[in-house]
Structure prediction request, 318 residues.
Amino acid sequence: MKRLAYIVPLALFLFLAGLFAFQLTQPKDEFVKSTMIGKPLPNFALDPAAPGLAGASRADFMNGEPKLLNIWASWCVPCIAEAPQLEALAEEGVDIVGVAIRDRPEDVARFLERYGNPYSRVGADEISELQLEIGSSGVPETFVIDGKGVIRYQHIGDIRADDVPTLLEELEKAS
Amino acid sequence: MRVLAMLLAALAVFAVPALAQQAMPPAPYAYTQIEDPALEAEARDLMLTLRCLKCQSQSIADSDAPMAGDMRHQVRTRLLAGQEPEEIRAWLVDRYGDYVSYSPEVSQTTWPLFAIPVLLLLFVGGVLLRRLGRRRSDGGEAA
Prediction:
C-alpha cells in the first residue's frame, strides 16, 4: 500500500511528461479548417473584380459541372507562386472561379496581366463576406464545388505542383 | 553594405503587397462603433470572445489584421440587423469550428475538461472523509 503511494504519482508524472514531450515535438497545424465541407454555398453575387471580367454568383456553380473556387488577392505573395498551377489546371479544362479579397480593380487587372488569367470569372469580395461565409481563414485558399453548389474539398495555402493531381482527383470525385 | 541593400530590396518586395491589402478602405463597421451604446457594448463583449483567424492568439477586438476588421463588421451589422450575440457566435462556429470562439463549450471532445475537476474533487473529498473518519474513531478509542 505504501509503495503504491509512490508508484501512482510517479507513473502519472511520467505519463504527463511523455505526453508533453510528444505534443511539443509535433509540428503545429496553424490552419483553421473550414467546417463547411458538405454544405451548400451561401447565396452571393459578387461584382466583377476588374473591368472586362465576369462577376461571380452562386448561380454560376449550379450548372452540374464541378468547379474550383479560388480565394486570392493581388496583394498576396503566395498567390503569385500558385499562378502557374492554376494555369495548368485551367489548361486541363478546369473551370476556376476567382474571388479577389479586399482588392482594387486596377491591382487585380495588373496582377492578371502579369501572372496570367486562369479564371472564367473573378468576383470582388471587398469585406471578406463570402470568405467568412464559407469558412475560409486566409489567402490563398481553393475550394472544390460540385455541380450542385455543394462545397466538397478545401485546399489551404498556395497550390504547389504536387497538389494539382489531388485537386483533379477531388474534382473527379465531385462530378 | 551591398548585402544590406539587397536585403532591404528583398524585404520591400514582400512589404509592398502586404501593405496593399490595406489599400482598400476598411469595412464600414470595422473601426466604427454602433451609435447605440448598449448595442456597441454587446458587440464589444462578443468581439472579445471571438478569435482572430489571422493572428490566432488575439481576439477580433484586439487585432488590427484586416480580416479581424471584416469580422468586426459582420458582428456589428448582424447585431444591428437584430441578431443575438450567441446567434452570431454560432454562425461563426458553424463555419470555423469551436476554435473561433474563446468561450468554452461542452462538446464531445471537451467534456473531459469539465468532468476531470469534478471527479478529482469527489476523489479527494472521499479520501479526506475516510482519513478524518478513521482518525476520529482512533481518537475515540484512545480517550
Observations:
- Chain B has two domains: 23-105, 107-143.
